[in-house]
Write a structure and sequence with these properties.
Layout: H1 19-26, E1 30-35, E2 38-43, H2 44-48, E3 58-63, H3 78-90, E4 98-101, H4 111-121, E5 130-133, H5 146-152, E6 162-166, E7 169-173, H6 190-201, E8 209-212, H7 231-236, E9 244-248, E10 256-259, E11 262-266, E12 298-305, E13 310-317, H8 333-340, E14 347-351, E15 354-356, E16 359-362, E17 367-372, E18 380-382, E19 398-402, E20 407-413, E21 420-425
Parallel strand pairs: 3-4, 4-5, 7-8, 8-9, 9-11, 14-17, 16-21
Antiparallel strand pairs: 1-2, 1-13, 3-12, 6-7, 10-11, 12-13, 14-15, 17-19, 18-20, 20-21
Helix pairs in contact: 3-4
């Protein structure tokens, strides 16, 4: 079985012949060790039976995509599963130095959602008491990240990026969920890229690097927005280092890739699963049933041994069973009911991360209404600011705008930028 991508014919990070076998292998809960840039794998059982960690090792835990405030069928109680993740952290054989949270702390950027996570994460026992955050797109919905920065951005640069050192490892937290371009992927931007280049310039090539951001910095599945447009440029600044580990969230499942000296790893969510790439019409939340849910959710433990010179990553589910990988799932009754409603001639439905119809034609003076039928929020934005930015739309919410001039109005979802549409006014 292939264990990492070897046939990258399109140079986009996807092995099209071995992708699904890579997914299946990554989904079983594996440990990666890195020595001189060469990976090898061990089963989770091997790790669990290995006894206490060397006290000189750096050990930390990554959690991701808590989506506090989400309450749909895929998981009506995300607080309970987040608390279970905290209990799992406290039951680990060694106490982690700190936690990394790789974004989507909240579901709708509400103060109460951030407050709830901050309160619950205080119960996690770590040696430093620290949690290092980067934002997800759900954390910056209505204010370009201003509330996130007030809460978590102390000491950060620009719009929230920063770095720190711990136990000989250089950590870099990046922000790739702001200023998204229509039809595009995650975005770092020129200012952050220049900062990154300066940040690592004086470091020795032997310094181990851990870079973390919400959206994958490599092209996991661009059709669903699972990648970063300028991620390759950021990674080029790290190419000279002997050991680089890239930790991301966003896709709610484990995918791993090794490319030279770089190990790429995406984390499980603590809230709800999303489908494996290409196995469903879109990347929305999947209802796998309450009895199976915790097999799809979990956390990531990371260890660095300066003595052995390697870094190891292991995923564990909240159920204590091998990590499950979600495929497409039948629609829930509520979802079917929403989609069954007819769409009027002056309406655009948002169904499974697609605008329906993608090109709505109306006459001058028509008020067009967008209706969100998905279980996640969307927001309507004009490509060229030809009409006002709409509010964040949760499930069943609407936004209307009256078009008073003829023309072709291109728009996109400012949260999920691969979603694009057109209103043609005659």
């Amino acid at each position: 079985m292939k264990r990492f991508i070897t046939d990258d014919t399109a140079q986009d990070g996807i092995d099209r012949r071995g992708f699904l076998t890579c997914m299946a292998w990554a989904g079983t809960g594996m440990l990666w060790t890195m020595a001189g840039g060469v990976p090898r794998s061990l089963s989770f059982g091997d790790v669990a039976g290995g006894g206490a960690l060397d006290p000189n090792d750096l050990f930390f835990v990554q959690i991701s995509d808590s989506h506090m405030g989400f309450n749909k069928a895929a998981n009506p109680d995300v607080a309970a599963t987040f608390q279970e993740a905290v209990r799992r952290i406290n039951a680990l054989p060694a106490q982690p130095a700190f936690l990394l949270h790789t974004g989507d702390i909240s579901h709708l950027s509400q103060a109460s959602e951030f407050d709830a996570v901050s309160q619950m994460v205080m119960d996690a026992r770590t040696r430093t008491g620290r949690v290092f955050y980067v934002p997800g797109e759900h954390d910056v919905l209505d204010d370009a990240g201003a509330q996130y920065l007030r809460r978590y951005g102390g000491g950060a640069t620009g719009k929230g990026w920063y770095s720190f050192d711990h136990s000989g490892v250089h950590f870099i937290g990046l922000v790739n969920v702001l200023d998204l371009k229509p039809g595009g992927l995650g975005n770092l931007g020129a200012e952050q890229l220049e900062w990154l280049q300066r940040d690592v310039r004086s470091l020795s090539a032997s310094t181990p690097i851990v870079v973390f951001a919400h959206v994958p910095l490599w092209a996991v599945y661009p059709k669903w927005g699972w990648g970063t447009d300028d991620g390759a440029q950021a990674l080029s600044y790290l190419a000279r280092f002997g050991s680089v580990t890239v930790l991301n969230g966003h896709i709610h499942q484990t995918v791993q890739k090794v490319e030279g000296n770089m190990t790429f790893h995406t984390a499980l969510s603590t809230a709800f699963p999303q489908p494996a790439p290409g196995t469903a019409d879109g990347p929305g939340p999947i209802d796998v049933g309450a009895e199976r849910l915790r097999s799809f959710l979990g956390l990531t433990s990371v260890r660095y041994s300066a003595r052995a010179g390697h870094l190891a990553i292991v995923d564990s589910s909240l159920a204590g069973t091998p990590v499950a990988v979600a495929g497409g799932a039948p629609e829930t009754a509520a979802s079917r009911a929403r989609r069954a409603k007819p769409i009027a001639d002056d309406e655009v439905a948002i169904d499974n991360f697609v605008f329906v119809p993608p090109d709505r034609q109306v006459s001058v003076g028509t008020a067009v209404t967008w209706i969100n039928r998905d279980d996640v929020p969307h927001r309507i934005g004009s490509v060229d600011s030809a009409f006002p930015l709409g509010p964040t739309l949760d499930t069943d919410q609407r936004y209307s705008y009256t078009f008073t001039k003829a023309g072709r109005y291109r728009y996109f979802c400012t949260i999920h930028a691969t979603m694009t549409g057109v209103i043609t006014v005659t």
